[in-house]
Structure formats: C-alpha cells, structure tokens
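Side project, low priority. Logging it here so it doesn't get lost.
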Amino acid sequence: MTSADREALRQQLIVHEGLRLMPYLDTVGKWTIGCGRNLSDRGISNAEARYLLDNDITIAINARTVCPWFPDLGPGRQRACVDLVFNLGLPRFRTFKNMLAAIDRKDWPSAAAELLSSRYATQVGARARTVARMLETGEA
C-alpha cells in the first residue's frame, strides 16, 4: 500500500469510526478510544503505553513553570514535584499551598509533613511516603 493509499484509508476510517480523544463505550459496550481502538479486548501495546507516558511526563515537566523555585531544586526534589503533578494534575497540585510554601522556603521536613497529612497520602499510600522522603532528603 502506498503512503497515499494509506492516508486515504486513514481518512476513510476516521469518517467511519469517528475520532474520539476520550474513552467511550461503543455500540456493543466495549471501551474504545481514538478511531475505534477496542480497549476492552485489545488494550494498548507496551510501546503505546510508553509513548503515552513520555507525553504525560513532558506535560508534567512543563507544568513546573508555575513554580519559580523549580529550577533551583536538585534532581530528587524535581522528580518528586513532577511525580505529584503527573499524578494529581497541575490544578490539584496547586491546592497544596502549605507544602508549596514550605518548598519555597526550603523547609523540607515541613514540605514532607504537609504532603503526608493530605488526603492524597491516604489515597496513594506508599507512593506518598516515597515522594515525601524525596522532598525531605532530596534523594531519589
């Protein structure tokens, strides 16, 4: 199949299947995304999952621009903050005002304590303890 034929097929399938960027239930009750990708039966490949992960990491890293102190953090604390943004999303991350204030003043024990006293910590357990330790010690 030539590249022109492949592109014509792509456009045809978009017309027939639709192009949806959020998961939905198809006409037979299967979770689907994109142009008819059956998530219920087929899922995604390891390579696709890693591609999505890399895109999401880039989004989380780019969100750091709202934290003027981010460039001054060491690698372990940067990873901790990006992990939080990745998991929470930037709007929810920004609600951790006491933790963010502690980070801004480089009060690492308080930043870790604020994180561990949050509802987030009860929801994710060991992940929160790991991220809090990274904030407190600066070690990955």
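Brief comment: The longest strand covers residues 20-25.
Revisit when time allows.
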